[in-house]
Amino acid sequence: KAGVTQTPRYLIKTRGQQVTLSCSPISGHRSVSWYQQTPGQGLQFLFEYFSETQRNKGNFPGRFSGRQFSNSRSEMNVSTLELGDSALYLCASSLVGQGQVGETQYFGPGTRLLVL
Amino acid sequence: SQKIEQNSEALNIQEGKTATLTCNYTNYSPAYLQWYRQDPGRGPVFLLLIRENEKEKRKERLKVTFDTTLKQSLFHITASQPADSATYLCALLDTGRRALTFGSGTRLQVQP
After folding, report:
1. pLDDT digits (tens, 9 = 90+) for A75-106
2. Which of A4, A98, A104 sits opposite B99 (nearest CB)?
3. Rounded to whole angstroms, how far apart are CA atoms A112 and B18?
């Protein structure tokens, strides 16, 4: 089975721009979660989508949004980029979601975003 | 406030020794705790899960313990190898919540 794929792998944007990141989960997985990873804050949960619905959300401003399509692929959008948004953005897929005990998440390689 | 603490300093050990990494948490009631490995430029890879009612879990050279009284999990790698060098993250699911919370990770360096 192919793993979780994320595109693009690297991205450079300037402040004020917006960006869309894409995640394709493992075939058959219906849950996709997004995380932001920075050296200072570590890995922080952004949101989780399951069957095209946002099921859970972390403590990030409304500039961060996402969606999931009927084929379980997911996109994450960040509007009005700030310097502090520079980070590694990771998505993870699982069969039914991280809230289930024993459920394993499979992470993609991430998209490294640099905001200048 | 809620905290998950892992030793931010790198752990350097000699090949063949046992590496022990610590994950302490405050103000959580974990339903379970997971350990992940992350290599530079890659996403985390799941290693082991231990439930709140389990004391110990093993998988090949890996062992995880979970002490809900001490609010601590220990992650052991026996007979360590240079290929074990990576950052190791612990993550827990708080009871009643639906999202994992991750620690900041500990970098392990195994010297040949």
Report:
1. 999 999 999 999 999 999 998 776 666 678 89
2. A98
3. 33
